[in-house]
Amino acid sequence: MRHRLVLLVLFLAAFSSPLPATSSSPFSPEECARRRAQLMETAREGLVVLFGETQAPPGSRFRQDNDFYYLTGINDSGAVLVLVNAKAEAHLFLPEQGEREIMVGGANLLRDADAAARLKLRSIAGLSALDEFLARRLSASGSVLYARLAPGDTLDSDRYEERLYMARRSRSHFNDYPSPDLARAAKLRTIFPDAQLRDVSPLLATMRAVKSGAEIDSLRRNGRLSAEAVRQAMRQTRPGAFEYTLEGAAVGWVLGHGARGLAFQPIVAAGLNACTWHYERNDKRLAAGELVLMDFGADLEHLCMDISRTWPVSGTFSPEQREIYTAVLEVQKAVIAACRPGADAAMIREVVAAELARKKITTRGLQGDIHHFVGLSTHDGSPGELPLQAGMVLTVEPGLYYPEKGIGVRIEDTILITADGCEVLSAAVPKEIGEIERLVKETE
């Protein structure tokens, strides 16, 4: 009994211990001040006005707008940042709070007399002063006003996807209302009709594409954390369990080890469900002989991770499953080996095609693609045909889907482009067939 108690205490301690604290936060006042200075130097003239998130989605924790958090590291709701570019000044505006608001939700930085100096801001003022401040500074700084005219990205979708969702929503005229960014831009045009509105989104997207050293350290920690969560799910796999059993094992692990939440709604898709790319019901009972595909990642320190693995419910791949899985794995390995500074999507496809032809591997039509950047958003933007640079973080996620067979296979890793190649941040979760089969057959 004593040994069991000791083991239980050790298990609970291991499960609940947060990850070691970083020596440098990716959103420290110093880091954010450096980013603001870079943005102001690039913009050069006029003002930048950036609005923070106003409230949390129903049932979720408050999570600050990505662009706003990137420049401030501030998690107060309803905040507005104004940069005076020529003078390299940063000013923060926050809602004035009544006593009941403070009692219910806590005080914002307006009640912190030392906050401006600590956060390396020129001033912090109440939101009621914003319009007059903009009017005075626009007059003194010229008529250029940078704001976000394109949709901002969210926790798990990039700016392009947000535009797409708006277009789909507007299929019904009852849902055809502007996004907060469009409404704010219209308001700025109304109040300051002589201002030249410019979109700050491209400037921020370029900056965010290349990660700082502190961001990279945080993403490495998230890679290890999220990988272990997927390993926990693999160990819970058996015929008769439910998809949500595996989800619960992974979610419990990351929340118990310091993650603030999830980078996206987990996908745990068994059998035919794996052929729906963004399947989210996660309520099917696992059956012997099926494959299960899991797409998972944590939101750690406001940075995301994205991992997909596919494994057999019974612990052993069938010959057909093994053949399909091997094709996907070989394509993924070839893409990762080709990812390095200077490479673009077209070059990577050529390298991968040549490598697979040399190995005489049948890829069933798969090409060697790179997919999306990862950072403050799970989908931090699309690399397109841009050449890769050291410090970029992106996913490689080939997949093959056969609805008629009830088989879907995707293998996804998040990688960091380094000076001479790339580093797989999610390497701690196995993807070789033998390693997967051994892990699935383990019992806790």
List the helices and strands and how they pair.
Layout: H1 2-16, H2 29-43, E1 47-51, H3 66-72, E2 80-84, E3 89-94, H4 99-105, H5 115-118, E4 123-126, H6 130-141, E5 144-147, H7 159-169, H8 180-191, E6 196-199, H9 201-209, H10 213-235, H11 243-256, E7 261-262, E8 267-270, E9 291-296, E10 298-300, E11 303-304, E12 307-312, H12 319-338, H13 345-358, E13 393-396, E14 399-402, E15 407-410, E16 413-417, E17 422-424, H14 433-440
Parallel strand pairs: 1-5, 3-4, 5-6
Antiparallel strand pairs: 1-2, 2-3, 7-10, 8-9, 9-12, 10-11, 13-16, 14-15, 16-17
Question: How would you portray this structure in words?
Answer:
The protein is of the alpha+beta class. The protein has two domains: 29-209, Creatine Amidinohydrolase, Chain A, domain 1 (3-Layer(aba) Sandwich); 213-440, Creatine Amidinohydrolase, CATH 3.90.230. The protein is 39% helix and 16% strand. The chain has 14 helices and 17 strands. The protein has helices at 2-16, 29-43, 66-72, 99-105, 115-118, 130-141, 159-169, 180-191, 201-209, 213-235, 243-256, 319-338, 345-358, 433-440, and strands at 47-51, 80-84, 89-94, 123-126, 144-147, 196-199, 261-262, 267-270, 291-296, 298-300, 303-304, 307-312, 393-396, 399-402, 407-410, 413-417, 422-424. Strands 4-3-2-1-5-6 form a six-stranded mixed β-sheet, with helices on both faces. A three-stranded antiparallel β-sheet has the order 7-10-11. The protein has a three-stranded antiparallel β-sheet with strand order 8-9-12. A hairpin with a 2-residue loop joins strand 10 and strand 11. The longest helix is centred in the middle third of the chain and has 23 residues, at 213-235. It is globular and about 70 Å long.
